[in-house]
Amino acid sequence: MKTMAERDALTGIYNRANFLKETRLLIDRHPETVYVLIRININRFRLYNAFFGLEKGNALLRTMGNLLAHLSRTEAYTYGRMESDIFCLCEPCDKKRVREHIEGLQQSIDNISPNYCIELSFGAYIIDERDIDVEMMYARAATAERKIAENPANHFSLYDQSMSDQIYQQQLIMNDMQAAIDREEFIVYVQPKYNLIDGLPFGGEALVRWDHPGKGLISPGQFIPVFEQNGFIAKLDRYMWEKVCQMLHKWIEQGHDPAPISVNMSRVSLNNPHLVDVFNDLVTKYNVPPELMHLELTESAYMDNPVLMKQTIWELHEAGFVILMDDFGSGYSSLNTLKDINVDILKIDMKFLPTGEDDTRSEKILASVIRMAGWLGMPVVVEGVETTDQIQFLQGVGCGYVQGYYFAKPMPETDYEQLIKESGKSNPLTGFSNEELEEINGVWSATPQVEAILRGISIPLAMVEYTQGDYQIIRVNKAFHQEFPSKASEGIMGESFGHNLPQESVCQLNAAFADAVCKKGTSECEYSRGDTGTPKWYHAKIQYLQSLMDASLLCVVINDISNEKILEKGLRQIQNTVLKDLNHRKRMLIVDDTAVGRKILTSFFAEDYEIVEAENGSIALEWLKKEKGDVDIILLDMMMPVMKGDVFLDHKNADPELADIPVVMISSEQDSKIQTEMLQKGVSDYITKPFVAEVTKRRVDHVIEYNSRFQGMVREYKKLKQQLEEH
Ligand code: C2E
Ligand code: CA
Ligand code: CA
Asked: What digits encode the pLDDT tens for the residues 158-190?
């Protein structure tokens, strides 16, 4: 019965120590069986974690554990989890069976995420030397597995004798390491960092070299990986930190004002629960200000255990140390995580930038990281800089510090001292002044309050970085993300003001951004997103916040104005109708039995109206019906033979085609009773005989104007309402 202590807490299978122990027993118990030891590595597991989250990552590891546990029911075999994403299996060396197992494992893993290709790589060692340490067998399988990286099409590699040289070398290293520490064979090299603005050195990074009595100077690439595997790295780290403290102490004693030196911190050291004490003891012992010790920890070590790391970083900060994130961009975190990581300085290695065809994209990413770090007040050191081209590019995007062969290779302590003496030293690594930071942090930083405000704002809001005709969204709130959904996997790089924006809209936005930057104030614009069926319209209000070099930070608030646009369009139609009404030559029907009356009225209106005359209501009605009511106004005498005015009115009002035509009644001064009656029947106004030109014209004009505008608006209003309802 296995106890929990023997097992890996996450997967429930053997941990490293017990796998090694049990495998030894297995091999010894079956002297007749030839075994194979297979090291299984989940490729790009970190990336998987980053895409799908720790939870899913852990589930994947548990699945692996499960699959291994159910490989075979008949054969005796061992399996275990060696470290994070590395498993190991030792089973009888039956070619066919092994192949089936390997293919089966890959297939089962394929089924987990059909859209994300999880590849396993297998390094195998056929145990032909049964007496060596299982540790050594495992190392051979690991050596074989490392060969896969040289040819990515392969997923399986078998250890062969030629690889053993390497193992042998590693063994030699292991044999010598403790003595090397005791004899102080490890020496500190310093690679200076340079300020890109004045080209002067400022501080450096301590890098270990092994001055081996027999082999000469060995570079860390040859022994650090071995030490990392066997845990010896913790001792070496501690040794290097002490050496650096001694160095700083010496410089201070000599009366110099040294710039900070950064030291490397391996994964293993980071997991030391007494890490902070170790550093505190060292700086106390050598009386070195802690801010002169810059601690480089790698991004991947951070991501192994972010919660613990946050706590450790907090304590180290409290104690006054400065934290650098080493190898940022080596594939784990996206731009988004930058704001969550509480480190002081970012180190980006040129070699982690994807190169190849899409160079502009990687340059863009690097530029973004540098500027985003700038917004966070975080200095950036770019390392591995070798060429003038790289330097020019980095100067262009506002990178502050570089470290690389372009300026200097790692050098012995004395050479570094000489270099500083000759060139003088530059300014400290800073981002913004405290005042500037406060101002920026007010709107930008990831403080809980600002986060809460951003979350609380229910209209879409984005932070935009604008640089000479180009913009990039660097932060959005939830409402924005809902309005313009992007793929989660793309992170902030995928955010946009609407996918496939028409060129015109991009121009509108760019122009408005430029305007806000130019005024250092606000601007606005409207733009449409034509990617869906019905075009959507947005209003963007832009507030300028800050500038850094040639980039500016803008806050953009978006309003959906699609409905307003429809209304606006409707209103324009209404206006057009009204204008048309006013402009077209109007028709007037004059119904009067006296020729003189008709003549006088005609003389008043002939200039503005096409006039039709009728002697009585009956003729008028007949004509109106024939014309389908195409007349703008009727002047109607009340007292007429054949058909009187009021009877005509009744007929007219009963016909829907004629009912809307406005009527001005012709009456005599005294007929106040009739006037009232007729007004109630829908007559719009009246004119009295004898006609006074000015009064008559005015009254008719008013009626016309009122009626046409009103009619037009009613019609358009109805149309509009229908449109909106359909929408
Ligand atoms: P690192 O911490 O990323 O250190 C930077 C490495 O890049 C150094 O290699 C440095 O010499 C090299 N480098 C600097 N500029 C350039 C350049 O322009 N081009 C190229 N191609 N390389 C450049 P080095 O000294 O061989 O160290 C390799 C790695 O070994 C380090 O990578 C670090 O991870 C580890 N290491 C070195 N010293 C220590 C140490 O004292 N403790 C721990 N834990 N790790 C160390
Ligand atoms: Ca480093
Ligand atoms: Ca590095």
From this structure: 998 777 777 677 788 888 999 999 999 999 999
Find the 385 Cα to ligand 1 centroid distance in Å. 13
Q: Which atom of ligand 1 is nearest to 351's Cα?
A: 21
Is 533 strand, coil or helix? Answer: coil
Of 159, 181, 204, the last residue of a domain is 159
| Closest atom of ligand 1 to CA, residue 228 | 44
The residue out of 360, 388, 418 marking a domain boundary is: 418
Considering the domain architecture, whether residues 255 and 404 belong to the same structural domain is answered as: yes
Q: Clarify whether residues 64 and 92 are in a common domain.
A: yes
Q: Are residues 263 and 317 in the same domain?
A: yes
Q: How far is the CA of 295 from the centre of ligand 2 (A)?
A: 9
Residue labelled with tokens 């801010």: 291
Asked whether the beta carbons of 206 and 294 are under 8 A apart, the reply is no
Q: Is the dihedral of CA 107, 111, 114, 118 positive or negative?
A: negative
**Mean pLDDT within 364-388:** 82
| Enclosing domain of residue 623 | 584-718
Hey, what are 618's tokens?
A: 């009956």
Q: Is residue 80 domain-resident?
A: yes
Burial (Cβ within 10 Å: 0-12, 13-18, ≥19) of residue 515: middle
| pTM more than 0.85 | no
Q: Any idea what the CATH number is for the domain that residue 82 is in? A: 3.30.70.270
Ligand 1 atom 2: residue of nearest CA: 264
How many structural domains is the chain composed of? 4
Query: 405: Cβ below 6 Å to ligand 1?
Result: yes
What CATH code is carried by the domain that includes residue 647? 3.40.50.2300
208 lines ligand 1 (CB under 6 A): yes
Residue 361 lies in a domain: yes
Task: Answer whether 481's CB lies under 8 Å from 463's CB.
Answer: no
Please return the burial class of 487, using the count of CB atoms within 10 Å of its CB with bins 0-12, 13-18 and 19+: exposed
Which tokens sit at 73?
């029911």
Ligand 1 in reach of 204 Cβ (< 6 A) = no
Q: Is the CB of 173 under 6 A from ligand 1?
A: no
Report the candidate in 137, 156, 105 with the shortest Cα–Cα distance to residue 36. 137
For 411-460, the pLDDT digits (tens) are 999 999 999 999 877 766 555 444 544 444 444 444 455 556 666 778 89
* CB-CB neighbours of 349 under 10 Å: 18
- 386 CB under 6 A from ligand 1? yes
